[in-house]
Structure to design on (110 residues):
């Protein structure tokens, strides 16, 4: 990876851990690579998540039978992956938001 690419910092979950299809993993990797290069991604793949914090967003990945979300924050030196989860409701569950906020606090405290 060249110096102009931000590294990914996984605080929770992985794309390969949930049972994503190979096509969904490829799409997720493609979108993460764009973020690493500093490209902005917009709807329908990405939306801001101000309820979690500044610079927080979620990637929307539609799989064969499931909708996945990958919550991340863009820092000056890295893309921080806060969570990967299966979307089951219209709104992001409160426990996911709370977990992401807690992970950010712990990460920033280090």
């Amino acid at each position: 990876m060249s110096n102009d690419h931000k590294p990914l910092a996984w605080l929770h979950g992985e794309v390969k851990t949930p049972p994503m299809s190979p096509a969904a993993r490829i799409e997720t990797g493609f979108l993460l690579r764009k973020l690493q290069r500093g490209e902005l991604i917009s709807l329908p793949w990405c939306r801001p998540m101000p309820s979690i914090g500044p610079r927080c967003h979620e990637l929307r990945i539609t799989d064969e039978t499931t909708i996945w979300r990958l919550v991340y924050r863009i820092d000056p030196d890295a893309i921080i992956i806060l969570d990967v989860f299966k979307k089951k409701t219209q709104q992001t569950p409160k426990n996911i938001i709370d977990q992401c906020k807690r992970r950010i606090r712990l990460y920033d405290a280090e």
About this structure: DSSP finds two helices and five strands in the chain. Residues 31 and 72 are 12 Å apart (CA to CA). The longest strand covers residues 79-87. The domain at 8-109 is CATH 3.30.2310 (YaeB-like fold).
